Each structure stands twice: as C-alpha cells, then as structure tokens.
Amino acid sequence: MTDMARQLLQELMGELQDTGKKYTDPDVCKDHLVDFCPNQQFTNTKADLGPCNLVHDDRLRDAYQKSADRRRLGYEDAFYDRLQQLTHDLQRRVRRALDRITAEADEHLVNPHKEEKEERAVILDERIRLMVGQIEELGEAAEVEEAYAVFRHMERLRGDLDALRQRIDSVTPMFKNEKRLEVCDVCGAFLVPNDASKRLDA
Fold this sequence. Notes:
Elements: H1 3-13, H2 30-34, H3 58-66, H4 75-110, H5 114-140, H6 144-169, E1 182-183, E2 190-191, H7 197-201
Helix pairs in contact: 5-6
C-alpha cells in the first residue's frame, strides 16, 4: 500500500478507530493540529510539496485545540514560520517568472524590424549569387586577380548574411506566436490568457 493510500485510508477511518496516538507524538502532523497541512495545498501543480507522511487525525486536532497545551508547545510559531517560508518561496517563483517574461519581451523588442532584416537577407543572398556568376565569368576569361577580389568581397557578404540570419532567428520562440503569456500571482505558473477557463482555474 502506498503512503498516499495509507494516509487517505487513515483519514477516512479516523473517526471509526482509535489510533492510540497523542498529539505530542513525533509522527503526528503539527501543522494539521494548528489548522491545516500545507502539503495538501497546490496538489498536482508546480508548487506541489508532495504527500505528508505524518498522521492527520481530526480527533487529535480537536483534543489539541481544547487542551491547555494550545499555544504553549510552539506548534503555532512553527506553523507560522513554515507558512512564511512557503509564501516567500512562492513570491520568489512568481518574481522569477515575471522577470523571465519581461526579459523575453525585451528581447523581442530588441528585434522590432524583423521583416526589414529578412528583406535585406534576400537582397544579400541575391547579390552573392550574382557574384558567383561573375567569378565564373572572370575565371573563364583568365582574369584571376579580379576574380579573387570579387571572391573576397563575396566572402565578406556571406559573413554579413550569416550574422543577419542569426539576428533574425534570435527572437524567442515564445513570442513568435500571437499568444502572450501571463504569470499566476499565486503559484508562478505560466498562463495563456485566452485559454479555457477551467484550465486557468486549475
């Protein structure tokens, strides 16, 4: 039986059977005693913390809430500290995702004249093809120095063309399509604004 199935069975059967545990036992989830277990939040998302392997027993929580030990054992402070850390981690993830989208958007803005660059690349390619023909004609006419001068000029144009093509292709693929991504301000996941509402809610 997997840990998750065991935990689920334990939660379902908790009302019917006495586990014989005390809320102070080390294998009892103290976060569950205070309020809720953070591991049960954001399941099946990038912020999923994985299953909690500690005991979640509502009867133990009720016993703790009614006991004189409440707020004296430090469980609330530890719970608060853990929530603060998780909140900080999620905020950092959201900031990183926003920075990534902003950086990629800026990279896209660096290349605003893509069509002009592609047109220039076509012109350069055509000039190079004409120069190849010119070199062949000069070679047949035994004009070696002139052919070599045209060849060197053609090689420079080829270098320019390669550099231009790299600049054209350097645009981030995420921004080549029309869909602009947004960031979930809760968990930092990337969202497509026009996506189905069920998917966005998930």
